[in-house]
Amino acid sequence: MMFEEPVHYHLPVLEDVLSPSDIHEILSFLQTELPAQSTSGSETTRSVFTLEERKRRRKVSNRESARRSRFRKKKHLDNLTDQVDQLKVENRELKNRLYIATHQCQAAQSETDRLILESIVLQQKLAGLCQILHPMQLQ
């Protein structure tokens, strides 16, 4: 009788989702689900689980599914919380930049107003000097 080498599958490790005991339970479940060949060759026997056993397995499966769902939900909530914190910091920085820009704009507007007033005063002085010089040039 020849013995075949076992087939080894290399699956990605999902440590965050399945624990070693979860993997063991799944593998044992799969092994019991496979039909066994009878030695007579005339009939295939199957493992038939009782109703209680199927309920128990379903309950275990549901619990694991719920656990994974809670884990994903918690991870998502943690990511959202981190994102909120980052956005709060960014918002504070943008408010500071807006305050500085507003202050600089007000300072520039004050300087513009001052220069306009100085220009008006200088134009008035120039007009006065022109009035004084104009009659002198005619003589």
TrEMBL record:
Residues 77-104 form a coiled coil. Keywords: Coiled coil, DNA-binding, Nucleus, Transcription, Transcription regulation. Residues 52-98 form the BZIP domain. Pfam families: bZIP_1. It is found in: Nucleus. It comes from the Eukaryota. Residues 38-74 are annotated as: Disordered. One of its GO terms (molecular function) is DNA-binding transcription factor activity. Residues 38-48 have a biased composition (Polar residues). GO terms for cellular component: nucleus. InterPro entries: bZIP, bZIP_plant_GBF1, bZIP_sf. This is BZIP domain-containing protein.
